[in-house]
Write a structure and sequence with these properties.
It comes from Micromonospora parathelypteridis. Keywords: Amino-acid biosynthesis, Asparagine biosynthesis, ATP-binding, Glutamine amidotransferase, Ligase, Nucleotide-binding. Pathway: Amino-acid biosynthesis; L-asparagine biosynthesis; L-asparagine from L-aspartate (L-Gln route): step 1/1. The longest helix is centred in the middle third of the chain and has 18 residues. By secondary structure, the chain is an alpha+beta fold. The chain contains 26 helices and 17 strands. Helices cover 40% and strands 16% of the residues. It has a 6-stranded antiparallel beta sheet with strand order 2-3-1-9-8-10. Strands 4-5-6-7-11-12 form a 6-stranded antiparallel beta sheet, covered by helices on one side. Strands 15-14-13-16-17 form a 5-stranded parallel beta sheet, sandwiched between helices. A hairpin with a 4-residue loop joins strand 4 and strand 5. It folds into 3 domains: 220 residues, 4-Layer Sandwich (Glutamine Phosphoribosylpyrophosphate, subunit 1, domain 1); 210 residues, Rossmann fold (3-Layer(aba) Sandwich); 64 residues, no CATH class.
Length: 592
Amino acid sequence: MCGIGGEFRLDGRPPDLAAVERMLPVLASRGPDGEGRWQQGPVALVHRRLRIIDLSDAGAQPMVDPALGLAVVFNGCIYNYRELRDELIAAGYSFRSTSDTEVILKAYHRWGTACVERFYGMFAFALVEIATHTLVLARDRLGIKPLYLAQGPGRVRFASTLPALLAAGDVDTDLDPVALHHYMTFHSVVPPPRTILAGVRKLPPATVRVITADGRSTDTLYWQPEFNRAAAAPMSADEWQERIMAALRTAVRRRMVADVPVGVLLSGGLDSSLIVALLAEQGQTGLATFSIGFEAAAGESGDEFHYSDLVARHFDTDHQQIRIGASRFVPAVHDAIAAMSEPMVSHDCVAFHLLSEEVSQRITVVQSGQGADEILAGYDWYPPMANVARADAVEAYARVFFDRRHDALGGHLAPEWMLDHDASLEFVAAHFGAPGADTALDAALRQDSLVMLVDDPVKRVDNMTMAWGLEARVPFLDHEVVELAAACPPALKLAQGGKGVLKAASRGIVPDEVIDRPKGYFPVPAIRHLSGPLLDDVRDALTARPARERGLFRKDYLEELLDAPNARRTTLGSNALWQLGLLELWLQRIGV
């Protein structure tokens, strides 16, 4: 896991090395173990390293292969790199390292851009064909690893984080009105390629972009799960359970590939508990597990230690409870905001940031349970989609998921920021209207798995863990698991209140008390119920001079929220004032 950045000139001029160099300090937390730089012709690359595979200097980046005429910077992990390495050696390639980075170089030389179809893993990389001055940018199937871009006169810059691009300079920091509409509608999610800033874009997941020396750019979408049952042979419920559990066993085993120990973030929910169970089943002993809890607020519990302790005892893990008191909380909120590449409203960000800080002191790699709810229908907005006609799916989804509808948004945003069309509903309609996705629920799960999941929970985990040089791996987002879940009949996923097929498959593997418990979330009561110093900070941000000059929100709506900070909730139960406050806190933090 690492931080990458660079510049590709399209105008015959050399890259701005000073600008690219300014990215490195901002990327340092993603790679605290070293840094590297390389420049030739129109391209400059920089890299910050976190040593996970091949801890020697032979695995350092940027990695250049003069014989093949290729250079690369890479963030992520190719879990099947050993198998690919053996295949490439059999084809006549030689290696000077045991790193997965070098496998990317040789694989590209042998198979071209189609190499990504052979990679099992999470990745974002920038590869240079030195002789032809061609830049190849690629991102993994589920967008687990980020890649941001800023186009300028005669050049393209790219980096693992948005703040790294800002540090390089010369970025249009005006707000994108369509992205603002999405932020206010999709629970802070801004789908790719947009970000909230007009001058920064992100490479979509499962995409390879080839940019040639003359500036031409071509995108290839190399993966798209079907979300229907046309290609799958009919199977019984028991067979589906067996197939999904077999795929998860493989996914968890793949994610143990490392030259350092691997632990688990254990929330006490089914998903993370199952990861622990499958690792124990595969013979892992003394597994390091970690859980976090906060002080209660407004009568709401701030921890789920009962369940995480139960799992830790059952599987005899080396478990650490992390308890966060009130004195650490408000500073941690601001630290979490500073770690965000984009504004993310979920209070889970603070939990993951604090958890990662503690975990990184003991271990460098963890597995985490993100993704199961989106691919296996674990959220409470999925059952209402079950009996909706396919033609009515867009409206039904908007009704259960949108924070606010376009008409209501007119009462919240200042008139100059309102669009004359419902951009968010149009986006969903286009996504739902694509071929495939047999039922309304299939369409909702496809939308959430390929869009919401990428730019909410997945991005949240990447940003917060990498702020502390901690690599998080997510076995539920193994692409083979996602493909299987997409083909699974909706009724099996919705059974038992959601994730029914996973719950049934987990019987006898995970304690029943964990399977049968009510649905839980990372509880952070102090954000759900704003008061005290954090409320003061939100109020200050929303009334500060930059916020007044920006004028995003209607004055009467702001006054209503500030007068009753915890009265207004979004459709999904989040604090509406926090959504507005978080956006302003983030914008002011990055200096916009």
